[in-house]
Amino acid sequence: MNTRTPIPPALPEGDVATDGDSTATVISLYQKHRKIYARAVTGTFAAWRWGLVWATQLLFYGLPWLMWNDRQALLFDLTTRRFYVFGLILYPQDLIYLTALLMISAYVLFLFTAVAGRLWCGYACPQTVYTEIFMWFERKLEGDRNQRIKLDAGPWNGNKILRKGCKQLVWLAFGLFTGFTFVGYFTPIRSLTESAMTLGFGPWEWFWVMFYGLATYGNAGFMREQVCKYMCPYARFQSAMFDKDTLIISYDAERGEPRGARSRKADPGKLGLGTCVDCNLCIHVCPTGIDIREGLQYECIGCAACIDVCDGVMDKMNYPRGLIRYATQNSLAQHFDRKQMIARILRPRVIVYTAILVLICTAFAVSVALRDPFRANVVRDRGALARVVESGMVENVYRLQLMNNQEQPQTYRVTVEGLPRIAMESPVEVTVAPAEARWITLGVRVPFEAAQQAGPGAHPIHFEIERTALQGHHEAAKVKEKSTFVVPR
């Protein structure tokens, strides 16, 4: 007979259950979210951060409106399966270029991380950029850190409702505008704007505008640091790319400890204190709410806000700057000067990343430069079997797809070779419109005697597609495509 040990009732957090000589404490593993009120900061790194905010957003919001040859310069037209990148026209068959771009992006991230930590996260990551923008709106409508804390702690009155309501409306409008712009990379933005005037979006446009708009609103307005701390995988594997010569935001404990408050005129040496005045401003400006004085933490996104505010405090106290600064673990431990620290950046890991990156970029540039001016695909028409037609000719039917990569109409001449006396049913010369992909049907014939001599079965042949040099002042170009000619038994 099975017996079960009764399970004791759950105890509240922190209660102690005693059984004989043993004592057990129940501890909750869930930590309640603490709202972070980041304080505004000015300084060198804040200026760099806002400079990149402006640069990235001018690119993002401006590129869809840029015209190139009477069309949108950057457009990923999923309906027609054409991808326009300035003067470059790509088709789904050109997926290899997207793969190369992803590899380049990955190695750039690896290289920057090995050299100077989370530069991408602190200055150019969309989550950081949009959080900065949403926090700017928040400060303008609710005030800086202390005013926001006081407003949240106060009762709901007309002033609080007005400020909170205006903030939410501005956030939502900016998020929807961001979603609209994003969709403008996939649907021509001018036609999308005309549809927006009458709210005449199609179902997919409505879905994606709302999806990306609300995602921006939620991530940058509410989740903020939680995205970086709990959702972003980069925070988890960044340590694999760090070493002791990686530039990271560091607190100089040897110089700053023991910390403590003092007057400006006091001599910290006589008080037995370091240069850290324990003002906690480095915590107040941190967008993820960490204390950098506790050492490097995975939550640190490398925004350098703590450096700016600490340098400001050091200036007021007439102490040298750099209590919190970009430094390496080796430079802090071995007291390297700036020149020695920078000299150690050029190390094997960085050299390998740089070499691979240069190699991939070079291969990508050469591949794009030598790319075929047009594409051709030949497939046998499976709906038409090999057959003997009039005059004793054996005929196979093929379907040829011609993809014009140019923005001018092009004329192509098609010929075939591979078997004795093989020829097209009739001479083929076809004109393809700019950036058009066109299917045509080809009849290929071989005299019966030549087919019998070759024997029954599949025989390799080649189609030669030649672009004439008549349109657009382009040079003549040729592409060869393989296929098979089937001789029936």
In words, what does this structure look like?
The chain is of the alpha+beta class and 489 residues long. The protein has two domains: 35-371, no CATH class; 374-487, Immunoglobulin-like. Helices cover 42% and strands 21% of the residues. The protein has 18 helices and 18 strands. It has helices at residues 44-62, 95-116, 119-124, 126-142, 145-153, 158-183, 189-197, 203-223, 225-231, 234-237, 253-256, 268-271, 281-284, 305-317, 329-334, 338-343, 348-369, 448-454, and strands at 16-19, 22-25, 67-68, 71-72, 74-77, 82-85, 88-90, 248-251, 324-327, 374-380, 387-389, 393-404, 410-417, 423-424, 428-432, 437-447, 457-467, 477-487. Strands 10, 11, 12, 14 and 16 form a five-stranded antiparallel beta sheet that branches. The chain has a four-stranded antiparallel beta sheet with strand order 15-13-17-18. A three-stranded antiparallel beta sheet has the order 5-6-7, with no helix packed on it. Helix 1 (44-62) crosses helix 4, helix 2 packs antiparallel against helix 17 (348-369) and helix 4 crosses helix 8 (203-223). It is elongated, with a radius of gyration of 33 Å.
Give a short overview.
The chain has 489 residues and is α+β, with helices and mostly antiparallel strands. It contains 18 helices and 18 strands.
Give the strand content.
15-25%
DSSP summary, beta strand count: 18
Beginning-to-end CA distance, first to last residue: 78 Å
Mean pLDDT: 87
Q: Which regions are unreliable across 5 or more consecutive residues at pLDDT < 50?
A: 1-18
- Helix amount, in percent? 40-55%
Helix/strand/pairing class, anyone? Answer: alpha+beta
The backbone outline, from C-alpha atoms, is elongated
Total helical elements: 18
Rg, rounded, reads 33 Å
Major sheet description: 5 strands, antiparallel
